[in-house]
Amino acid sequence: MTDTHTTTFETLLIPTDGSEPAEAAARRGFDLATQCDADVHLLSVADSSIATGAGYAGDSPSIRNRLRELSSNRAASLRDSAVEQGIAATAAVREGIPAKEIITYATEQDVDAIVIGTAGRGSVGRAVVGSVADKVVRTAPVPVITVNPKATTPGSVDSVLVPTDGSEIAAAAGRVGFGFAEELAATVHLLSVVEAARPAWLSALTDGEDTSDESLRADSREALDTLAADARERGLDVETTVTEGTPADGITDYVESEGIDLIAMGTTGRGGFERLLLGSVTDEVVRTAPVPVLTSRGDTSDRPEDADRSEDT
């Protein structure tokens, strides 16, 4: 698996459950594949839990067969659409627990990133893509590009926003974002949002550390300068900004004011009481951002079983 320093985006995995949000995310994925000159794998998972779930007297072969048929049709339809756009595409069908099968497929095929919608509706009214996307983001061993219903506007990605909380995980995610920006020949915007008016109880838990706005701004500027030097070494155009506010709101406000096309950030960040966890900020950004969000984990472990266990959480 490629590491965060040499990430390339030559193969994209696009799962679908046949819902409109999933199909819209797939179309957005085709735009990215075209811009990256990447191949795509279209994967539809026949959800085995539907055939064995409540309302059925045990496993049902007829339901399984119908689910496989629907999944095959969905994957083939998207593959045909991709090929019509000049994209090299492969259709695949799996049966099992969706998040686990997506991650297992990504590992087996050595894909570079997963593109997935954050909301959808499956058979018998089950919410599928939304919950599956959450599990994939939290457990995938490769970067995940999430596309919520607000982020499906077609077009090229010419600017990538990399927010940072100063943690190494945020910096590693930033380097993944730099790799994507290189693929797209996009400008990089580096942003640190300093939370103003911190509650007194929070400041009291930082063990005497200087948490003044001036100190936080200085730390943020140092982190941005370090990341900016890395980006410029790659030949990227870079802009840096330190602002104040609530991190998630500050990120989405910057996206709208600067016309950003994609956000790249980590799924977890520096812990402790002295900082907001980047993970919680990422959750909100993924749900509300008007552009796709490229997320990457702080570790590169390859554990499809994590997705299996998370189905019960």
Q: Biggest β-sheet, characterized?
A: 10 strands, mixed
CATH topology of the largest domain: Rossmann fold
Tally of contiguous helical segments: 11
Distance between the termini: 28 Å
Number of domains: 2
Low-confidence stretches: 1-5, 120-128, 269-277, 300-313
For the record, what CATH class of the largest domain applies? Alpha Beta
Radius of gyration, taken over Cα atoms and rounded to an integer in Å? 20 Å
CATH homologous superfamily label of the largest domain? HUPs
The class by helix and strand makeup works out as alpha/beta
Order of secondary-structure elements: EHEHHEHEHEEHEHHEHEHEH
CATH architecture of the largest domain: 3-Layer(aba) Sandwich
General shape: elongated
Concise account of the structure shown:
Residues 9-147, 159-295 form the UspA domain. The chain has 313 residues and is an alpha/beta fold.
Kindly describe this structure:
This is Universal stress protein. Belongs to the universal stress protein A family. Pfam families: Usp. The protein is of the alpha/beta class and 313 residues long. The protein has 2 domains: 143 residues, HUPs (Rossmann fold, 3-Layer(aba) Sandwich), CATH 3.40.50.620; 133 residues, 3-Layer(aba) Sandwich (Rossmann fold). It is 45% helix and 19% strand. It is built from 11 helices and 10 strands. A 10-stranded mixed beta sheet has the order 3-2-1-4-5-10-9-6-7-8, sandwiched between helices. Strand 1, helix 1 and strand 2 form a beta-alpha-beta unit. The chain is elongated.
